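Figure S4 source data
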Amino acid sequence: MASCELLAVVVSAGPSEFWDLLSLSVGYPTPEKMARVRQGYREALGCGLIAAVLDGCLVGAIGYQDSAGGVEVKHLAVRPDKRHSGIARALIQGVIATFPGKVLFAETHDGAVGFYNRLGFQSKPLPRKLGSETRWKCRRQTNVEK
């Protein structure tokens, strides 16, 4: 498992490299859509961003929004050449450590639901699909060790 440093990112000052990486978790990330994503993090209450840095290189990114109902993972991305090395797990654990006792939830697809389940999330299929893929709602209490 990679041991990476987790750093908070200031939305207005986030380097383009950060947004390029985060775009890997955005469906059809056109420049216009990414501008809206960035604006959403800048304007919505409770939003935050964390970067994972390994050996001085940006390797992962997570965006979340805290609300009365819990903390939603809005985007989670890891550089393709660094996947399956513990970086996404470290990013999720960084959010959990920031919000002890809160419910953490995410919406994901068939290819990522197993990742969330391995981290202790409970997953339920949503009634809608994205193309042929099932969408999943994943939920986890943050004070549970995993």
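Figure S5 source data
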Amino acid sequence: MRLKIFTFALVVIGLIANHIILAQSTTLVNPILAGFYPDPSVVRVGSDYYLINSTFAYFPGLPVFHSKDLKNWKQIGNVISRPSQMNFLGHRMTRGLFAPAIDYHNGLFYVTCTLIDKEEIL
């Protein structure tokens, strides 16, 4: 009986140690996206992560990134990808689309964003 308890204890300790080693093997570098990607917003959908960020008055606007591990990101598109979606003419470079937020519900992604200093309803 003591041998079974001892064996069980060793197995449990081994599993815990293995979990700790694996959990510590991933190192995330900050920032997760190098370059000009301010005001990130991330949503998890299943095992996938999606990130968007501010682009101000730059076109195309609001890039969308995808990741499976929060470490490796790939741009998969832009929320504003056609000139007909938003007219950036007349925006100063320090204005435009600020602090977007991304969410997911019932199969659809939702993005909300602040448009700074433009008297226009989108």
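DSSP finds one helix and six strands in the chain. Strands lie at 41-45, 48-52, 61-67, 74-80, 96-105, 108-116.
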